């Protein structure tokens, strides 16, 4: 069996249920992307895209051959949005770095206006996601819609450098773990637990970086 066939078709057994190897590999790429993101490395984005492609094929059993009998279209859809927003984040971080910044982006708190915009976007996106996922026959559309909505907001927040994006991820993980366990996507559920712990560390790290860089950045001198 060549490496491609192995990645696409191989399975392992976890808790008495078959699990695709590509689900495990996709989550490893996702974790690597999160680690690079905490260190503000531009590589976070292309590595994440690889994981997105692999995980998309895991959650839509109606299209790809999967051992689970539950389609999670919200989980699949968020991989598409991840990839699209990651292209934006990749460009933004790369551009920022080549403008003289030591890292891809400078962490900062979102302004009040930006938070209100995110909240309004969340309400609209959740409503749309819920009805679309229910129409597609996604399993657990109410929770799946929140995972999709929160994931998009968190990824966008990461691209903009908002410190709050880590907290959005925690809220996604809290919902995602029980949903994925019930659907028997055990590697993804396990990674959600790891992501949740990691996000707490990432939040503290970005908070410290934001405070340090704000102090180190000199105030502009007004001449007049």
Task: Classify the secondary structure makeup into a structural class.
Answer: mainly alpha
Largest sheet: 2 strands, antiparallel
Q: Biggest sheet, strands in spatial order?
A: 1-2
Dominant shape: globular
C-alpha end-to-end distance: 73 Å
Radius of gyration: 19 Å
Number of helices: 8
Q: How would you spell out the order of helices and strands? A: HEEHHHHHHH
Oligomer classification: single chain
Helix content: over 70%
Count of β-strands: 2
Tally of domains: 1
Strand content: under 5%
Unreliable segments of 5+ consecutive residues: 219-224
Mean of pLDDT: 80
In short:
With 224 residues, this protein is mostly helical.
List keywords for this structure.
transmembrane helix; NMN_transpt_PnuC; Nicotinamide mononucleotide transporter; single chain; mainly alpha; two-stranded antiparallel sheet; transmembrane; about 220 residues; nicotinamide riboside transmembrane transporter activity; about 5% strand; disordered C terminus
Topology diagram in text:
Elements: H1 3-9, E1 11-14, E2 17-20, H2 21-38, H3 44-59, H4 73-97, H5 112-136, H6 141-160, H7 165-182, H8 186-216
Antiparallel strand pairs: 1-2
Structural account:
The chain is mainly α and 224 residues long. It has one domain (3-98, 105-216). It is built from eight helices and two strands; from the N terminus they run H-E-E-H-H-H-H-H-H-H. The chain has helices at residues 3-9, 21-38, 44-59, 73-97, 112-136, 141-160, 165-182, 186-216, and strands spanning 11-14, 17-20. It has a two-stranded antiparallel sheet. A hairpin with a 2-residue loop joins strand 1 and strand 2. Helix 2 packs parallel to helix 8, helix 3 runs antiparallel to helix 4 (73-97) and helix 7 (165-182) runs antiparallel to helix 8. The longest helix is centred in the last third of the chain and has 31 residues, at 186-216. The radius of gyration is 19 Å and the shape is globular. The termini are far apart. The model is unreliable at 219-224 (pLDDT under 50).
């Amino acid at each position: 069996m060549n490496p491609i066939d192995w990645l696409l078709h191989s399975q392992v057994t976890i808790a008495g249920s078959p699990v695709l190897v590509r689900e495990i590999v996709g989550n490893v790429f996702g974790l690597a992307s999160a680690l690079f993101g905490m260190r503000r490395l531009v590589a976070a984005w292309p590595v994440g895209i690889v994981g997105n492609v692999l995980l998309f094929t895991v959650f839509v059993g109606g299209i790809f051959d999967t051992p689970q009998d539950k389609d999670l279209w919200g989980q699949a859809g968020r991989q598409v949005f991840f990839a699209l927003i990651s292209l934006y984040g990749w460009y933004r971080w790369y551009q920022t770095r080549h403008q003289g910044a030591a890292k891809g982006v400078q962490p900062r708190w979102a302004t009040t206006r930006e938070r209100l915009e995110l909240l309004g976007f969340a309400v609209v996106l959740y409503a749309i996601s819920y009805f679309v996922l229910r129409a597609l026959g996604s399993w657990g559309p109410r929770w799946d819609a929140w995972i999709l909505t929160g994931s998009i907001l968190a990824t966008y927040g990461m691209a903009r450098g908002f410190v709050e994006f880590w907290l959005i991820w925690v809220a996604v993980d809290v919902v995602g773990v029980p949903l994925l366990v019930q659907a028997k996507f055990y590697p993804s559920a396990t990674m959600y637990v790891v992501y949740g712990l990691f996000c707490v560390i990432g939040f503290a790290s970005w908070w410290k970086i934001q405070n340090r860089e704000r102090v180190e950045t000199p105030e502009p001198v007004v001449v007049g």
